[in-house]
Amino acid sequence: MNCFSCLKSPLLLVGFASFAFALDQGTKLPEAPVVRQGRTVAAIETPGFNVAVDRSVNQLTMVDQASPRLTFVNLAAAQGGPDLQQDKSAKPVTDLRSLKEAVGDRFKIGVGVGHQVLKQPEDAVLIRQHFQILTPENCMKPQSIHPKENQWNFEASDQFTEFARANKLDVVGHCLVWAKDDRTDEWMKQENDQPVSRETLLHRIESHIETVVGRYGDVVTMWDVVNEALADTGENLLRDSVYSRATGIDFIVTAFKTARAKDPDALLIYNDYNDHKPEKREKLIRLLTELREKGAPVDAYGMQGHFELGENEIPQLRQTFDELRKLKIKVVVSELDIDVVTRGRWWADNGSHREELAKFDPYKDGLPKEIQQKQIEQYVELFKLFDEYPDLIVRISFWNLHDGQSWLNYFPWNRVNYPLLFDRDRKPKPAFDAVYETLRSARSSGAKAVP
Ligand code: GLA
Question: Which of 399, 401, 408 to mutate to test ligand 1, by most ligand atoms within 8 A of the CB atom?
Fold first, then answer.
């Protein structure tokens, strides 16, 4: 009985409790209209409330008609499982707007989060309300999941993918190869105390990919196959790393071919940052062209999209998208956020500003209105641009769920940052309102906005 104590009305309590009991016993659900074809299996007529049960994700949703509130109850947890405390602590959602409904079927909308986030009931509610596809922030990266040649840490990725399966969400497998030395363990780089040979490295890449893709291919619909291989500056196409030193471009070819062989239906992505800037854009196009020539099945370019406030990126992005369209390479916006305590200076002038920046925390008491407004405008411009490319863009994912969880509070120095659409209390910010309205008033001809 206590399973529904998070619900307010005693009348409902009884109804829901017996309903949960019915589910528990495997009894037939009450006869009721189907409210959302395909997913929601039953609706219960209860005075004052709309109640829907989505048996596919074992979830009950209630909307108070008088003052619309949305409450999700996980039925498995509500039936007395160990998650009961967690679900009880989740506050009802008071804002019924949903990014995924505003997006309609134009593209997938997603978010990158840590596996721990999925255990927070209030985060889980927000995720279910707004997003269709999740990227594991860290747990599936090579150093996390495969710390030694014969040692695997599957636990966190298993939990992550379990949450996705249970909630009928897709997953982006992130990432199979991270082409940087500081993101690669020693065991991958060495062989008999020498730098690893080309043959061994390619073999290790194949075997890593076969294992990860084999384990999670059922729920992963897009793979970040290779992350950050391009050189930021200089003449070289690829950054200096064990991968480029040992194999040139071939590690990327092998990675994509192996991923395709193991998961023929998934979208295979090359993921990187700053490729809208002219110097790196030229390299990106060269890389993708060479990969195509070598038979690497690259379906999409993952534009991380870690922007900084005031960056005038729109014309450069437009040019990048136009060139990718010519190459018939799709685009995913894979890690979107807008840093308001901008970080570029950290790397400028040989790092000579770092001591000063390390103490720079200008918005610890709140974000001034004018800065907030600038961020809103930048978000709106971005989403208007994305809307110009409905044939090209297949997914837009934010990087982290709310301001308090963003990596930009810690990288490259500690500061209070505000890069996302939800604030530290998980409330939609004015930037959310603006993006939501932009999505709803989609101009693209193919767009199907939800009324
Ligand atoms: C890159 C990586 C991500 C993440 C961010 C910072 O963009 O692709 O996995 O590590 O940096 O959080």
Answer: 399
Which residue CA neighbors atom 9 of ligand 1 most closely?
A: 137
Distance of CA 124 from the midpoint of ligand 1 (Å): 21
Ligand 1 atom at shortest distance from the alpha carbon of 271: 8
For 55-205, strand residue ranges (E) read 59-64, 70-74, 108-113, 133-136, 170-178, 190-191, 194-195
Q: Distance between CA 233 and CA 80 in Å, rounded?
A: 57
Closest CA to 214 of 253, 159, 162, 173: 173
Ligand 1 centre and the CA of 439: distance in Å? 26
Structure tokens at 25: 């016993």
What token pair was written down for 72? 């999700």
Pocket-forming residues, ligand 1, beta carbon under 6 Å: 227, 304, 335, 407
Distance from the CA of 393 to the center of ligand 1, in angstroms? 20
Q: Would you tell me which CATH number, out of the four given (3.20.20.80, 1.10.3430.10, 3.20.20.70, 3.40.640.10), belongs to the domain 99-440? A: 3.20.20.80
Q: Which residues contact 131 (CB under 8 A, 6 or more apart)?
A: 99, 100, 109, 110, 111, 169
Q: What is the mean pLDDT of the chain?
A: 85
Instruction: Please state, in angstroms and rounded to a whole number, the distance separating the CA atoms of residues 389 and 329.
Output: 12
113 DSSP β-pair partners: 136
Over its C-alpha atoms, the chain yields an Rg (Å, rounded) of 23
Q: Which of 218, 226, 208, 419 is nearest to 305 (CA)?
A: 419
Beta bridge partners of 20: none
Q: What is the pLDDT of residues 124-147, one digit of tens each?
A: 999 999 999 999 999 999 999 999
Domain ranges of the chain: 2-89, 99-440
> Smallest Cα–Cα separation from 250: which of 202, 196, 207, 212?
202
Distance 299 CA to ligand 1 centre (A): 21
Cis peptide before 412 (omega within 30 of 0): yes
pTM: 0.81
The catalytic residue positions are 228, 335
The token pair that represents 157 in the structure block: 């990725």
Residue bearing the CA closest to ligand 1, atom 12: 407
Which of 304, 339, 411 most suits a substitution to test ligand 1, by most atoms within 8 Å of the C-beta? 304
pLDDT of 10 above 70? no
